[in-house]
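ok trying again, last paste got cut off:
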Amino acid sequence: MDYIIQKIIYDAPAVLIALSLHEFAHGWASYMLGDPTPKAQGRISLNPLHHLDLVGTLLLFFVGFGWAKPVQVDSRYYENPKSDMVKVALAGPIMNFIVAFIAIFIFEILYKLDIGINLLTGYILLLLQYIAIINIGLGIFNLIPIPPLDGSKVLMAVLPPQSYFSYMKYEQFGMIILIMFIYLGAFDGFLTIARNATMAGMDNIAMKILGLF
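nice, full thing came through this time. structure:
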């Protein structure tokens, strides 16, 4: 029962925030680059119902790594399709890292103020930690270069066109490969180390900033 309550009051808000802002960032970035598609499809929204993917949400909820429903974009509207697509792909993970840092920064402010621990403040402090952990995890996970994750689109900037399109021919198998790797725990060690290191680095930066005041 305690596990279920924890999932409802801590994981659920953190997951909804992470997924909604991740996909909002993709849609907003593409729209700002001239693509009307995300706005027309209602994806420039903070409403989680516009963005949730059942499998990806459940994985993020229970495993800590997952995805939302991909935002459809049309690169034909971009001035520089190759580089602009990379910007759109990176917008989601960058948003997650920003949200995580804000959560960590607020946590450190509250801790520095010594607000005392009661039912409300204890919940807020723990929720901020969950928001940071899940956003960092989602941001790092989506940088893995396996379709349909954002990292596969970032490859566009570093691979020769012929090699990239040869790679993307297997996009239809990407989801199957991804779920198989998750099931086998192939990413667990790397992602845990990367997430903990990123969180520690953000916490160190937040503490240094607060030390200036």
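cool. The chain has a mean pLDDT of 87. The two ends are 43 Å apart (CA to CA).
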